[in-house]
Each structure stands twice: as C-alpha cells, then as structure tokens.
Amino acid sequence: MNAPEPAVLVLEDGTRHVGRAYGARGTTLGEVVFSTGMSGYQETITDPSYAGQIVLQTAPHIGNTGMNDEDPESRRIWVEGYIVRDPSRIVSNWRATESLDDALIRDGVVGISGIDTRAVTRHIRSAGSMRGGIFSGDDAALDADEQLRRVTAAPEMAGQNLSAQVSVAEVSLTPATGERIGALAVLDLGVKQATIDNLAARGFDVHVLPQDVSFEQLCAIDPVAVFYSNGPGDPAASAGHVALLREVLDARLPFFGICFGNQLLGRALGLGTYKLPFGHRGINQPVLDKATGKVEITAHNHGFAVEAPLDEPFDSPNGYGKVEVSHIGLNDRVVEGLRALDIPAFSVQYHPEAAAGPHDANYLFDRFAELVRTTQQAGTTKKDAQ
C-alpha cells in the first residue's frame, strides 16, 4: 500500500496543519470558512456562493455517499479548496456515479484530509475567517515562508466582485411547471438549480439572465417580477447590480432576493453592509420570522450582512418608503430578511430552497408568488408604472 501524500493547510496568521493530500494536487488559495452541515456535501461544493473560498466541513466523515447526477446545484464544483477530516474510503449509495475524491480531481479542486478540523474551526471562530492555502503534491515541500508569502499575497474577500465568474453567459429558460403566472427575470449571481426548480413550480417561466444584463435587456422578456439570487463576493463591490435593482424598484416590479440578493436590496434601499467575523454556513441556523413569531431552522451561506434597525420600521434612505427587518438570526441578531412596506419587494439572507434541507423556509416562494399575483390584480405592474 502506497504511503499517503502529504499536504499542508497554511493560514494567513502563520498557523499550519499538516495532513494528507485529497482531491487534485497543487496549490489553492482563498478565504478559509467552515460549514456545519451534517449532510449535503454535494450541494455545498456545487453552490456557486462558495467561489473564492476554501471550505472546511465540520462533520468528520465526508464522501460516504459519493457523487450523483441528480443533486448538483450548478454545472461544476465551485469551492476553491476542500478540507475534511475523514474522507470515506468507499462509496456506498445506489445513486452514486463517482467518488467525491474523483469529482474533486476532475474539477481541479485541491483538498486536504486528516487534520483536526475542530481545531481549525475553533481558531476561525475566535480569530475570524482568514485567507489560507492548501499545498499538496510537489508544493507541499515548498519552504514554509514561501507558502505563507503566497497566502498573504492572495486577495481578501472584502472588496471582491465575483459575480462574473459564476454567472451564465447566455439567457436560459425553464418553463413553469405550476399554474402559470408569467415571465420571471432571475439575475444569476450564482443561482442554484433547486431555486430555479422552486420558482418554476410556483408558475414562473424562469429566465436566468447574465449578471451584466441591462434594465432594457431585462425588460425585453416582459417580466412580471425580478429575482436576485445568492452568490459570492462583497455586496459593496457590486454597484452595477445595485443600480439595476434601483431601476427595478423604481418601475414597481415585484422583487424577491435571497442571500446576496438580500444584501443588494439593502444597498439599493440605502442601507450599509458589513463583513461578519466568520459568517453563517450550514443547514442549522435558527431564524425568527417576525410576521408569524415562528422560529425556522434554515440553510445559510453568507459572510456579509445588512445594517438596519431590528425592532421598528424605518424610512429607506433612498426614498422607497417604509422598510422593516422581517427576519432576525437568533444566534447573533443579524438581519436575516427585509420587507419594503410601500413597494412590492422583500428578501431573506438565507436559502429557502435548501436542497440538502431543512425546508422550514420553503413557504417564501409561495409568499413571492402571492405578492406577484396581488400586484398584478392591483394593476401596479411595470406597464402601469411607465
């Protein structure tokens, strides 16, 4: 039996963890973050929101069900690197078409296994997310100072606009599978397939648009509403997406945004955004829906958040009337949702499609469909506003 190939994880503060090579060999650099999901690793690594990030799985045993052709959330694996403690040596699931290790190699994702992932997680929770690098193959033998130099030379996540890396290049259409409402313009900032499927099931003809589309191009499909998806990067670096959204809001088109889309709605309304110390990533985040008083367990993947008053409605600094925080994270009181009271727009900071579960927040797609129907009945669609 061949001896395992070495690999090393290097954090920007000089912390080093030596383990075994996993996935592709070489060097990868990015922001090191952790995800607390106990299941759904295939959905995690194919989520475009993880572009630019090296993801650590806190669950110790990863890869036992392999990879299949039904569960990917996009066209490829997007994580910049992958950290696991104990990768499964065999695949045991009737749907599997390949192993996780083979999929990582195919998509060129450098990983590391066999390190104390609990220690790394605790360090990030204390010191905050930071840049890191995984070095394997020949690069594992590089001088430690050179490895650290490469890590500290990598760009920080703050200030990065990564939408162009993950967005589609051409428009795609998924026809409605439920009772038809009309055409929906989805700005692809890193949209997941489960989101598209949920929107189509609510009666929308889902037009997935490139992230650099103009308002005129968006209106060419005659949309009844607009949706901004999840995605990677710093919302403060997405001024173009905010400007487009303000045109949408000015036209009184119904709007729904999730995750990155929530942050961009906040900025369009005139609110600020900031970087969280280590973010929310996983499928077990408790959120309070202020409208119902219910606590929902939700799927998250975000490192930035919106600044807004939590308790009372407030005036939009950009003149869109009254706004309220609709959902609050119960772990740290982070804004988890926004609702405009004078225009048809709302958003949440998490992922209601939750393909790997839980599905407590799936009702938000119904809420959006009802908002669009109500707006249509009131005659305040784009055509009436123009």
From TrEMBL:
Positions annotated to bind L-glutamine: 49, 231, 233, 260, 263, 301, 303-304
PROSITE patterns: GATASE_TYPE_1
Record-annotated Carbamoyl-phosphate synthase small subunit N-terminal domain positions: 5-135
GO molecular function, one term: ATP binding
Domain of life: Bacteria
Region annotated CPSase, chain positions: 1-180
Active-site annotation: 259, 351, 353
Stored InterPro entries: Anth_synth/Amidotransfase, CarbamoylP_synth_ssu, CarbamoylP_synth_ssu_N, CarbP_synth_ssu_N_sf, Class_I_gatase-like, CPSase_GATase1, GATASE
GO BP term, pick one: L-arginine biosynthetic process
Pathway: Amino-acid biosynthesis; L-arginine biosynthesis; carbamoyl phosphate from bicarbonate: step 1/1; Pyrimidine metabolism; UMP biosynthesis via de novo pathway; (S)-dihydroorotate from bicarbonate: step 1/3
Documented EC number(s): 6.3.5.5
Pfam family, one: CPSase_sm_chain
Protein task: Small subunit of the glutamine-dependent carbamoyl phosphate synthetase (CPSase). CPSase catalyzes the formation of carbamoyl phosphate from the ammonia moiety of glutamine, carbonate, and phosphate donated by ATP, constituting the first step of 2 biosynthetic pathways, one leading to arginine and/or urea and the other to pyrimidine nucleotides. The small subunit (glutamine amidotransferase) binds and cleaves glutamine to supply the large subunit with the substrate ammonia.
Family, as annotated: Belongs to the CarA family.
Subunit note: Composed of two chains; the small (or glutamine) chain promotes the hydrolysis of glutamine to ammonia, which is used by the large (or ammonia) chain to synthesize carbamoyl phosphate. Tetramer of heterodimers (alpha,beta)4.
Record-given protein name: Carbamoyl phosphate synthase small chain
Protein's organism: Microbacterium pseudoresistens
Gene that encodes the chain: carA
